[in-house]
Amino acid sequence: MTTLHFAEGLRELVGGVDVVLSDIWGVVHNGLESFPEACEALHTYRSRGGTVILITNAPRPADSVQRQLRKLGVPDETYDAIVSSGDLTRLYVAEHPGRKMFWLGPERDNSIHRGLDAVTAPLEQADYIVCTGLYDDETETAEDYRGMMLKARERKLTLVCANPDIVVERGDRLIYCAGAIAELYRELGGEVIFYGKPHRPIYERAMSLAGERQGYQIDRKKVLAIGDSVRTDLTGAREFGIDCLFVTRGIHAEEFEGLDQLDPTSVVELFGHPPKALIRELKW
């Protein structure tokens, strides 16, 4: 299929859908403020018996993500549960007690190892790296870390990426994330473990939580993913075997200008395999 279906609202797509797995950043907020219509759409779906699990590449545990959502004005009633790449990264740290961790990321992400008794160390003494982001994502890019990554590769350190996103929106700007550094390290020949979308573990965890809330094992044919990234949301949903509603106002907004005039070849170039439907911004 190379044609594109443009939906007017979520209501068109949730008949027979038991579970929605929704991205957060770019779908329900932009890093500075919430999107009320998106929140209301998810709440309406829940009020009709559906389960909403927010899945995010945030390099923080779910409780920290929830606190941020509240500050941005996203009501708790918008969703049933949150699964973050930070949760999965914390599990990795917990499963490697006594090994020395070099943490690369801003101070705001310190919850990545909170309560885990993690042994932190300089790069020269570490056994592995946990990357939650850039030290200063307002001014830096991954290239600022090339020297550091070369040193890490020489020591054959594994880099655990707590956020596979390359960029995210912050207001009207795009800022670099841990995924940009992880991809650079991989290009240099380093070993990388990715937690979060598009990788399978975060979807398996989300499906487990959804099953607990619905009281039965969820059929993937009755699941709809929502996201704004081809690389993480669309690819992750496709590889996990679930449909995807793609939000075009997010990080790819400029690329999708005039999307309704695209020919089949251009559709394939943009998406590979097109999503189930597209919508400019999530609403009911």
UniProtKB/TrEMBL annotation:
Gene3D superfamilies: HAD superfamily/HAD-like
Keyword Hydrolase: yes
Record keywords: Hydrolase
Keyword Hydrolase among record annotations: yes
InterPro entries: HAD-like_sf, HAD-SF_hydro_IIA, HAD-SF_hydro_IIA_hyp3, HAD_sf
Pfam families hit by this protein: Hydrolase_6, Hydrolase_like
Gene Ontology MF: a single term: hydrolase activity
Annotated protein name in UniProt: TIGR01459 family HAD-type hydrolase
Native organism: Bradyrhizobium diversitatis
